[in-house]
Structures are given as C-alpha cells and as structure tokens.
Design goal:
This protein is of the alpha+beta class. It contains 7 helices and 6 strands. Strands 1, 2, 3, 4, 5 and 6 form a 6-stranded antiparallel sheet that branches. Strand 4 and strand 5 form a beta hairpin.
Length: 200
C-alpha cells in the first residue's frame, strides 16, 4: 500500500507546483491540478494537527476526486454483485480511508518541487492523463500521472500512477484477494475498523 500513500500525498501536498507552465490555453484538467495545489498552499501553513488537516482535505482536495467511479474500478467485478446499500457503504468508507491516509501523513511531508506537465489525450476526449514530475532532495525525480475524467463542467481524478503502477489496480488486486479469501463483509469490517482507529 506504500505506493497508494505516496501518490495520494504528492497530489495533495505538491505545494511548490510550477505555476508558470499553467496558462489560459492549458487543458482544464491541468488547471484543476494547479488550482488545487494553490488552494492547499494558501492554508497549509496554518494546519498544524491531523484533525485540521482532515478538514482541509475534505474541503479542498476530495471534491477533485470521483469516488464512485474509483470505487467501481477498485472493486472490479465485485461492484455489480453488491446491492445499493453496500455500494454506498463502500464508497463512504473508501473515501474516509483516503482522508485518513492524507491527514495522518501531513506532518511528515516535506516541501517538494512539482512540475505539472501538458495533459495527454487519447481517443476518448473525456479522459486525460496529467503527468507531473516531483523533484526530491535525496532521490531521483518521481513521475506521477493523474487520470482525470470529465464530470459535467469539471474534471476529476479517477486514478493515479507512480512509476507506471496504477493506484486503482493496486487496490483492486488487494480487495479482490480479501473478498476471495474472506468475503466482502469481512473486507468492509477491516476498512471500517481502520477508519475507526484513525478517529478522524
């Protein structure tokens, strides 16, 4: 799960993202990434504890994610086997799991330099990849790409990859194994317990 935490944190806290490369002619998805990091930067200095960080994430970052789509992809074939109540339960707790991951690691994150690159489009114009390069002080730069999907008049994150490894595929493999070995209800119990222990 380390890749998941790394990719999520770099999206939330890429607080020195290069603004000069984002222009009025840039793809809307690029501007979403830039605007999000700008908003985080404007309040981050005053967020000193985990609970404040959790509120920051809820207000600014999570609206940029399409959690229903991410949940469907994370569960794969198991999503359609759930009734509506269990789908709602999963989306809610999956969302909270990510909030807890962000907030807990906030105090450990060190300022990094991030370049937001030109969005890459394919045949489906409603889905784009926004690459970023994160410069680290003691390691090779990291390449993080955000898959973004058009949602009404906005663009939202539906997946991320670091080093070519997809966040959603990582979750799907983990959850598929959990469901196969113990069932969906046991998986949910584990996620809910983890959220409860976080206490946010």
């Amino acid at each position: 799960m380390k890749i998941i935490q790394t990719a999520l944190l770099l999206f939330v806290f890429s607080i020195n993202a290069t603004a000069s490369d984002i222009t009025a002619n840039s793809h809307p998805a690029e501007r979403v990434v830039q605007e999000t990091t700008d908003k985080v930067l404007s309040v981050l200095e005053n967020q000193q504890d985990v609970n404040q960080a959790s509120q920051l994430i809820n207000d600014i970052v999570l609206p940029r994610f399409n959690f229903e789509q991410m949940s469907k992809w994370a569960l794969g074939k198991h999503w359609d086997r759930l009734d509506e109540n269990k789908q709602i339960l999963f989306v809610s707790n999956f969302r909270q799991l990510l909030v807890n991951t962000y907030a807990t690691a906030l105090s450990e994150f060190d300022n990094q330099s991030v370049d937001v690159l030109q969005a890459k489009t394919g045949k489906n114009k409603k889905v784009v990849m926004v690459p970023t390069i994160i410069s680290l002080s003691n390691a090779e730069p990291l390449k993080i790409s955000y898959m973004m999907m058009e949602s009404g008049t906005d663009w939202k994150v539906v997946d991320m990859s670091i080093g070519g490894v997809s966040l959603i595929r990582n979750y799907r493999a983990t959850y598929a194994s959990e469901i196969r070995n113990a069932g969906f209800d046991t998986l949910m119990e584990k996620i809910i317990k983890k959220n409860d222990l976080a206490g946010l």
